[in-house]
Design a protein that fits this description.
- This protein has 310 residues and is α+β, with helices and mostly antiparallel strands.
- It folds into 2 domains: 60 residues, no CATH class; 194 residues, OmpA-like domain (60s Ribosomal Protein L30, Chain: A).
- Helices cover 40% and strands 11% of the residues.
- The protein is built from 9 helices and 6 strands; from the N terminus they run ααααββαβαβαβααβ.
- Strand 1 and strand 2 form a beta hairpin.
- The longest helix has 27 residues.
- It is elongated.
- About 13% of the residues have low confidence.
Length: 310
């Protein structure tokens, strides 16, 4: 605005050049201290939410390690490392093993499951027929007949089969084994003869331990079943297990008497009853799950306790 006559004259002077530089410096210092203040009072929760939002927008990534201490500066946070590849992501020269689809309701799985269930039912029917043929001995408590999957287990108790601390078969037990032999002739598969004792140690002139007693008793039963050459010897496996696999705890005289036994396990074969396609399916990963559901042991493995007592 121009000066008018009668108004006081105002002196117009320029500020020194350093003032502008000083003002810029003060502005920068103020911004620096504001920045330091904002970092020193960082809200860790808000920072975590912001990091999660950025991670979601950028796709899957390892989470930033944000602590609960608000005094931690983002500049001090460790640099995220690339994730370790999962085992299935590691390249391999071997092709991945085929497996049964996660959806196990496929037609092939349903067919093999029904076929195996039919074989297990067939084993139970065979065991029931055997129990009827040996009903007097079963009722007298001389033996039990059980099933586990495709295995028929004939359990000969010590009472009625052997004298105490003896491996000599009684005449009545020989008659029972003759009836069992007739079944073995008509039923293919492996035959496991397993001797068992209780937990009381034994040391006599003939038997130095329960291992020897259980093994000799198992041999005596197996040799009786091999009489007349009606059952091939290469079908047999004879084992003495001493007191390592009791049926019940050795806490009473009755329980110990039940643990003293010889078991004849008729392991019915699966190979003849299954096609090559069935075997290929069961050999895949997940095939053993189908067999375990029906209590069938793949191959000849250690037998667990039976489930069905007639």
């Amino acid at each position: 605005m121009d000066w008018q006559p009668g108004e006081p004259e105002i002196a117009h002077t320029k500020a020194p050049a350093w003032v502008i530089t000083f003002a810029d410096l003060m502005s920068l210092l103020m911004c620096f201290f504001v920045l330091l203040l904002s970092y020193s009072e960082m809200d860790a929760e808000k920072f975590r939410q912001m990091a999660a939002s950025m991670q979601q927008s950028l796709g899957p990534a390892p989470a930033l390690p944000v602590g609960s201490n608000p005094s931690v500066s983002p500049l001090e946070l460790p640099v995220p490392q690339p994730p370790t590849p999962l085992p299935q992501q590691v390249p391999s020269d071997q092709p991945p093993a085929p497996d049964i689809p996660a959806n196990d309701d496929t037609l092939a799985v349903q067919v093999i499951r029904q076929k195996l269930a039919g074989l297990v039912q067939e084993t139970r029917e065979d065991a029931f027929k055997l129990s009827q043929a040996l009903e007097p001995q079963v009722q007298a408590g001389q033996l039990e007949i059980d099933t586990k999957g495709r295995d028929i287990i004939v359990r000969l108790r010590e009472q009625g089969s052997f004298d105490s601390a003896s491996a000599e078969l009684s005449p009545s037990s020989r008659a029972v084994l003759a009836r069992i032999r007739e079944v073995l002739v008509s039923k293919p598969g492996g035959i496991l003869v397993q001797g068992h004792t209780d937990d009381r140690p034994i040391k006599t002139a003939r038997f130095r331990s329960n291992w020897e007693l259980s093994a000799v008793r198992a041999v005596a039963v197996a040799e009786e079943l091999m009489q007349a050459g009606q059952v091939a010897q290469n079908r047999f496996e004879v084992t003495g297990l001493a007191d390592t696999r009791p049926l019940v705890d050795n806490t009473s005289a009755e329980n110990r008497a039940r643990n003293r036994r010889v078991e004849v396990v008729i392991s019915q074969d699966l190979d003849a009853a299954l096609s090559d396609d069935d075997k290929n399916l069961l050999n895949k990963q997940g095939g053993d799950k189908i067999m375990r559901q029906l209590d069938i042991q793949p191959g000849r493995k250690t037998l667990g306790l039976p489930q069905n007592i007639f």
